[in-house]
Design a protein that fits this description.
CATH architecture of the largest domain: Orthogonal Bundle
Number of strands: 10
Strand order of the largest sheet: 1-2
CATH class of the largest domain: Mainly Alpha
Number of helices: 21
Distance between the termini: 7 Å
Helix content: 25-40%
CATH topology of the largest domain: Myeloperoxidase, subunit C
Bound molecules: protoporphyrin IX containing FE
Shape: globular
Radius of gyration: 29 Å
Structural class: mainly alpha
């Protein structure tokens, strides 16, 4: 039986010819829009959380904002403001206040150690091909777990904050000035009542954010910040709207004095984004990953609302937050740690006897590992993996400057670049932007992060490297060759430190040979494993825990990768499925989620590529114009031939019909461009 279509009349025929032209024009314009990275809506395809219509989150199954009450028997575990713990004994100083090593005049000052051991003359790429997402996730997740802030501006009861400025000699090759000078260093805030001069009551330090992986980096570590960040409508988080997609809300402290404070390290903060963690504006990659999770929250909230139109703002917000936190946990435990080569003991469920508290060995030393894994360039790429017109950024150009995101294409170019670029090897080397010019030029605020990390260890009284090893059950090193097989490093260690027992823990950990199949040396590897395991096993609400009420969506969360989040929430259409490993071959970027609008030059919505690789963006405009001309010619031909066929088929009572499935309009577009009529959705009636 032949289906007759009423559009086979000559008047509708003319309408459809006109429609073909409009469609072609729309196609071309949508292609142009894609070139300029317009915000996009994605095709469904990735996980959509099929079980939204349930409401499993109640007060006992959601993380509090300040981290309290997660362990019912120990409600203070993991709370914001908790004291950072110690696995190794604190290095005692005579009055409980002085810095470690100050009583040893033969141990060099941190800048001298940095000059001797942390100066990078050539870039060493990661030998396991880890991408820049590895260090970025490390930083994002550390901002999730710990923040030991300094006394600078935070000591109302003191005239002056305690300082421990680092001397720079006048012949310092990079920072030297006639007469020498001092690099600023403010000592850490102390827990009230500790470090009062009594040798038995040495300084201890608070962690001002929640310990748990509970989304505090996104939602805040206190109720007031969490409240400000919410839209208080339909479960959404506040955003600022930009052409390239939503960004975090921006501060306007004059108009709204309740705006939560953000760290801006002396930079102009008029455009500062506001986030759950006050360090979010530190550099453009960090802003980008924050933005991704805000978008994911709002994407989840929209989907939840769609399925549950009667839910309140609070219900939608809490459920989206709950899932978003689960995603952060899953990415950390299923992607990030394995990429470092860290394998935890198998998960056996929540263990309330485990104290998750962040240790000094972790936050003040080991997890600062990322400082050596950062390269000097922030790569920015378009969809064909060519540099964007504005080019890449140096690391320092991205410090505390949000304009590259606001004015130069949003977060997409940065997120592509991070997946493309191989990060620096975890070793003693620090790039110049962090070692000589962090947050300013030398002499104009520029600091040395390697020296600061060493000094922070001393400020917190972290013991020497060998004592830390012993505390973690590892044997002490007796020779320099125990640290590493690299002769050059052995020589430098030997010429810098008086003996193997006086090595700062931070330097010792970075100097070690890596464990097999790991990005880290033995001590660092063990400290990270120990901390992340306690954090997982002591968390009643960890998404894998039997108490998290995540049963119905656990598998979906397990399966969701950082690549999925990038594809769902940005205009990026292709990326490798495991973004923690760098990928530079376009054809190997095998995870994809096309945009809803047709955004590129072929029918599969794939970016345009030549057999040899990508076509530079500069060729795209002429190509689009050629396609336009060809398409118009073809459309007219097709319309004429179609008209002939219709007339014929009316006679023969046998006509092709467009399937009326959801691909109908796309099929129409496809067929108007393809005179052979080979595309899907165009079926011959029988
Ligand atoms: C461009 C990137 C980064 C910059 C500019 C940066 C800068 C800083 C600065 C200025 C501090 C405070 C130092 C002090 O006064 O003691 C710090 C602390 C820290 N950083 Fe980074 N960092 C970066 C990336 C990373 C990465 C990739 C990681 C880990 C993978 C990391 C882990 C840490 C940790 C654990 C702390 C201590 C946090 C605490 O207060 O508990 N950072 N960083």
């Amino acid at each position: 039986m032949i289906e007759r279509n009423d559009w086979r009349t000559s008047s509708t025929h003319r309408q459809r010819s006109g429609f073909a032209l409009v469609t072609v024009a729309l196609f071309v314009f949508s292609g142009l829009a894609a070139v300029s990275a317009a915000p996009v809506e994605k095709e469904p395809g990735a996980s959509t959380y099929a079980f939204f219509d349930e409401w499993p989150v109640n007060a006992s199954t959601q993380y509090s904002f300040d981290g309290s009450g997660i362990n019912v028997g120990h409600p203070g575990y993991g709370v914001a403001g908790a004291q950072i713990s110690r696995i190794s004994d604190r290095y005692s100083t005579p009055d409980g206040e002085n810095l470690t090593f100050w009583d040893r005049t033969d141990v060099p000052n941190p800048r001298e150690i940095s000059n001797s051991l942390c100066h990078e003359s050539t870039f060493h790429p990661d030998s396991r091909n880890l991408s820049d997402y590895n260090w970025l996730w490390g930083q994002f997740i550390t901002h999730e777990m710990d923040h030991t802030t300094t006394q600078d501006g935070r000591t109302p009861d003191q005239d002056q904050p305690d300082t421990a400025y680092i001397p720079i000699s006048e012949d310092d090759e990079w920072m030297g000035f006639p007469g020498g000078f001092q690099m600023r260093f403010f000592r850490s805030l102390v827990i009230n009542g500790t470090g009062n001069g009594d040798p038995l009551n040495q300084r201890e330090h608070p962690n001002i954010v929640t310990t748990w992986i509970d989304g505090s980096v996104i939602y805040g570590s206190d109720e007031a910040r969490a409240d400000w960040l919410r839209e208080h409508r339909d479960g959404r988080m506040k955003v600022s709207n930009y052409e390239e997609g939503d960004l975090m809300p921006q501060a306007n402290y004059d108009q709204d004095p309740t705006t939560p404070g953000m760290s801006f390290a002396g930079f102009n903060f008029s455009n500062s984004f506001v986030a759950g963690d006050d360090r979010a504006n530190e550099h453009v990659a960090l802003v980008s990953i924050h933005t991704l999770f805000i978008r994911e929250h709002n994407r989840l909230a929209a989907a939840i609302e769609d399925r549950n139109p009667d839910w309140t703002d609070e219900q939608i917000y809490q459920y989206a937050r709950h899932i978003n936190i689960g995603l952060m946990e899953s990415i950390t435990y299923n992607e990030f740690l394995p990429s470092l080569g860290i394998e935890l003991d198998p998960y056996t469920g929540y263990n309330p006897s485990i104290d998750p508290t962040i240790s000094n060995e972790f936050a003040t030393v080991a997890f600062r590992m990322g400082h050596s894994q950062i390269g000097s360039e922030m790569i920015r790429l378009n969809e064909t993996r060519r540099p964007i017109a504005e080019g890449h950024l140096t690391l320092r150009e991205g410090f505390f400057d949000v304009s590259p995101i606001i004015d130069e294409g949003g977060i997409g170019p940065i997120l592509r670049g991070l997946a493309f670029n191989v990060q620096a090897e975890n070793d003693l080397m620090f790039v110049d932007d962090l070692r000589n010019q962090m947050f300013g030029a030398p002499g104009a605020g520029g600091m040395d992060l390697c020296a600061i990390d060493i000094q922070r260890g001393r400020d917190h009284g972290v013991a020497d490297f060998n004592t830390v090893r012993e505390a973690f059950g590892l044997p002490r090193y007796t020779n320099w060759s125990d640290f590493t097989s690299d002769n050059a490093t052995i020589e430098l260690l030997n010429s810098t430190y008086p003996d193997v027992d006086s090595v700062d823990a931070f330097i010792g950990m970075l100097a070690e040979d890596h464990v097999n199949n790991s990005a880290l040396g033995e001590t660092m590897h063990l400290i990270l494993k120990e901390q992340f395991q306690r954090l997982r096993d002591g968390d009643r609400l960890y998404y894998g825990s039997e108490f998290s009420e995540m049963d119905n969506i656990r598998n979906e969360i397990d399966r969701t990768t950082l690549a999925d989040l990038i594809l769902r929430n940005t205009e990026i259409e292709r990326i490798q499925c495991d973004v923690f490993y760098a990928e530079q071959i376009f054809d190997e970027m095998d995870c994809s989620l096309p945009n809803k609008r047709v955004t590129s030059g072929n029918d599969n919505n794939e970016p345009i590529v030549s057999p040899e690789g990508s076509i530079p963006i500069t060729y795209v405009f002429p190509l689009v114009l050629i396609i336009l001309v060809l398409a118009l010619v073809n459309a007219q031909k097709a319309a004429a031939s179609w008209s002939e066929k219709q007339e014929k088929s009316e006679d023969e009572d046998e006509s092709p019909s467009l399937s009326d499935d959801e691909n109908g309009s796309q099929s129409l577009l496809c067929c108007r461009l393809d005179s052979e009529k080979t595309c899907k959705g165009y079926t011959k009636a029988k």
